[in-house]
Design goal:
Layout (H helix, E strand, L loop, with lengths): L5 H6 L5 H27 L4 H9 L1 E6 L2 E6 H26 L6 H26 L16 H9 L7 H25 L6 H19 L5 H18 L5 H9 L8 H16 L11 H17 L2 H25 L9 H5 L2 H27 L11 H10 L4 H11 L4 H29 L6
Antiparallel strand pairs: 1-2
Helix pairs in contact: 2-6, 2-13, 4-7, 4-10, 4-13, 5-7, 5-15, 6-7, 6-18, 8-9, 8-10, 9-10, 11-12, 15-16, 15-18, 16-18, 17-18
């Protein structure tokens, strides 16, 4: 008999897009954990110099007199991470159109909790770093790492209700949207109007593709790449192009589901009308029918959903691990780690991600419920919301990303930020998991 790991057993019968999303985030979280450990090991062994040299190696592209030259680290953070942000854009769009954020009565609690969980950490950070060189890092503790947070919750299995998982997903999606807005508006130093105008023109072309009913992916990919290049030259962080491009991908099927069922049944009946050959080879007309059915399956699905499913694996297995390897490797000097933790930047991030996230998420949720603005997720308790608020303090991916933008060129500040992010994320994740596992009780029916 096959033995399933907890997350495999919980999702071996998944069928809905939401369940596929949860399963993919769980897988991403586990892979992210492993690659983070590898990066930390590499940075603290004799391989550290080779590790650093690898990610500072230049990769250049030349087309005639035009060239694009960046380090491997830069290509990962500005190039590959555009695919991660494209996935974020698709997830946000799905949640708003058909997911938990499409029903305001259900969405109001995670929306308010997410806003509280973004504003309060930023205020705590600024209270500690106001007037210092590190004040620009206020956006770092605002972020929640959706993959790590959901992984911890899913591994609890039946101890938490499905509605609580849904609450965390909706909260994290709103949090991601907030992070994208912060990056676009506040972490852009200089803006070059010509490439930004060309990027906007590229966006309009993508919108026109959508409006003309183009469901083929290739045109969107080519124009999205062009928009990314213009965004790279504009001064606005290039990964934002991924989110913007995702918003233009069609979310309406080209073929009505009712018609699909009827026509497919007719095609299958025609397929069965051909006699089975003695050597079990397929009749040429049967091959044509199967191709017709495949085309109809593609047409009844939406490009956005197909892309979300097909990109989860490469993003989980390639983009996120490479980002962790390139960014999570910090050389830890245990003799001075106590001093680093109490530096204003590290301390501001840790208090923001732990205290700020918990008070912001759980506090705002409590007030919203008490005031009658929202209600608890079905089958959940405030005790569990408190535990989920701690999981919201796992910043990691987005926090590290913002730290690199906030302190460009200042390795000392980036190091302090990463120490704070890793320490806070580890504490918040472990405490939140243990609280939900041993302290919080599921509501009784």
């Amino acid at each position: 008999m096959k033995i399933y790991a907890p997350w495999e057993k919980a999702f071996k019968k998944v069928s809905t897009p939401f369940e596929h999303f949860i399963h993919a985030q769980t897988t991403t979280g586990i892979i992210l954990m492993v690659t983070t450990l590898i990066a930390l090991i590499l940075a603290n062994t004799p391989l550290a110099d080779a590790y650093i040299h690898l990610f500072h190696t230049k990769i250049s592209i030349y087309i005639g007199s035009w060239s694009l030259s960046h380090s491997v680290h830069h290509w990962i953070n500005d190039g590959l991470m555009a695919f991660f942000f494209f996935m974020v854009g698709l997830e946000i769009k799905r949640e708003v159109l058909v997911g938990e954020l499409s029903n305001i009565k259900i969405a109001i609690l995670p929306i308010l909790a997410a806003i509280g969980g973004m504003v309060l950490p930023a205020l705590i950070y600024l209270a500690i770093n106001n007037g210092t060189e590190g004040s620009n890092g206020w956006g770092i503790p605002m972020a929640t790492d959706i993959a790590f947070a959901i992984s911890a919750l899913v591994l609890l299995g039946k101890r938490v209700s499905t509605s609580l998982v849904t609450f965390l997903v909706a909260l994290a999606i709103v949090d991601d949207l907030g992070a994208v807005v912060v990056i676009a508006l506040f972490y852009t130093d200089t803006i070059n109007l010509l490439p930004l105008s060309l990027a906007f023109a590229s966006f309009l072309v993508l919108v026109s593709f959508n409006r003309f009913g183009i469901h083929t992916i290739l045109p969107y990919f080519l124009m999205g790449t062009i928009m990314w290049l213009f965004m790279l030259e504009s001064g606005v962080h290039a990964t934002i192009a991924g989110v913007i491009a995702a918003m233009t991908i069609p979310s309406i099927p080209k073929y009505a589901p009712v018609d699909f069922s009827k026509h497919t049944a007719n095609l299958l009946e025609e397929y069965d009308s051909y006699p089975v050959a003695t050597d079990h080879t397929m009749h040429e007309q049967q091959k044509a029918i199967l191709q017709n059915i495949k085309d109809k399956i593609d047409a009844v699905g939406t490009p956005s959903l197909r892309l979300e499913h097909s990109l989860h694996l490469p993003v989980s297995l390639l983009v996120i691990p490479l980002f962790a390897l390139a960014n999570a490797g910090i050389a830890i000097d245990f003799s001075s780690i106590g001093k680093i933790i109490f530096e204003p930047i590290s301390l501001g991030i840790m208090l923001g991600l732990v205290v700020g996230k918990v008070l912001g998420i759980a506090g705002v949720a409590f007030l919203a419920i008490k005031l009658g603005i929202a209600k608890l997720p079905e089958g959940s308790t405030m005790n569990q919301i408190f535990g989920v608020a701690f999981l919201g303090g796992i910043g990691f991916t987005m926090s590290i990303f913002v730290a690199d933008l906030a302190f460009i060129g200042n390795e000392s500040f980036i190091f302090q930020a990463k120490v704070g992010i890793l320490a806070a994320s580890l504490f918040a994740g472990l405490f939140g998991f243990l609280w939900l596992r041993f302290v919080a009780n599921k509501a009784t029916d």
